[in-house]
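A.,

Following up on our hallway conversation. Structure tokens first:
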């Protein structure tokens, strides 16, 4: 039965400026950002928070539960709501999403197959999409994610997240990760402990590694020149998952680093150290 919570007050608060046991990422309530919600409920059982049909990470922070709600780039500006469940009880958590303008980028690609894939390529792209979706929608309850990420490579970080790219004037989806510069063959490291859930050579992404960190937080490492892990491997923060490269659809060697929270691709800069 769905009813209002009577066992405690469930509140939505801004957490910045407060003392916390967790090393929380930066909050940014914009499309492609992160909303941090505090749940004042009993210690047990673990509450379940849903947004956009996906389960959000919920972590214990001292005497309360904290939900990290990833906001997809397609999130509409204005009032949004997550849903919190505990047993048969439900409460709607309203919050506001502010606007953010992302830049556009136009590139000329000489390889026509990268712009207009042939039928065989389309089959491969479809298979890649299904594998990507399976990796990014994982919600593992038996792993406690670390929220203090390491830098995957030490190179210069671009502000490419959210860019709307045009290849030969044909629009593509907004850029859903951060491009970090580096040299071919440079080690790429896991930003936190986790389990490798998939690896492979993808049509657009090139050599790719997905790492599940638990509770709906998944990272991805694209365009690698070499993959050094396999599905099922447990990695610690700083372990090498592969080497930086230029595989897939790229104009030069770099790492595309992505962070998914409840399936939403969010700005990696919210998690990375300055």
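Then the amino acids I'd put at each of the 274 positions:
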């Amino acid at each position: 039965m769905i009813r209002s919570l009577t066992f405690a007050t469930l509140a939505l608060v801004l957490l910045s400026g407060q003392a916390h046991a967790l090393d929380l990422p930066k909050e940014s309530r914009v499309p492609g950002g992160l909303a941090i919600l505090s749940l004042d409920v009993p210690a047990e059982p673990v509450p379940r928070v849903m947004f956009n049909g996906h389960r959000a990470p919920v972590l214990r922070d001292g005497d309360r539960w904290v939900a990290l709600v990833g906001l997809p780039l397609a999130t509409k500006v204005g009032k949004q709501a997550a849903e919190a469940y505990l047993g048969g009880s439900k409460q709607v958590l309203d919050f506001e999403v502010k606007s953010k303008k992302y830049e556009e980028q136009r590139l000329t690609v000489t390889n026509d197959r990268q712009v207009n894939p042939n039928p065989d390529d389309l089959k491969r792209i479809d298979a890649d999409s299904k594998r990507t979706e399976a990796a990014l929608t994982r919600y593992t309850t038996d792993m406690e994610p670390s929220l203090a990420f390491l830098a995957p490579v030490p190179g210069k970080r671009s502000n490419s997240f959210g860019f709307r790219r045009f290849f030969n004037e044909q629009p593509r989806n907004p850029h859903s990760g951060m491009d970090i510069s580096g040299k071919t063959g440079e080690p790429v490291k896991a930003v936190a402990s986790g389990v490798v859930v998939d690896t492979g050579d993808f049509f657009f992404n090139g050599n790719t590694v997905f790492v599940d960190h638990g509770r709906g937080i998944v990272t991805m490492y694209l365009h690698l020149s070499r993959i050094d892990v396999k599905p099922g491997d447990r990695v610690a923060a700083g372990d090498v998952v592969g080497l930086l490269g230029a595989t897939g659809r790229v104009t030069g060697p770099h790492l595309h680093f992505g962070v998914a929270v409840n399936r939403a691709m969010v700005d990696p800069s919210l998690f990375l150290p300055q």
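DSSP finds two helices and 20 strands in the chain. Curious whether your intuition agrees with the design.

B.
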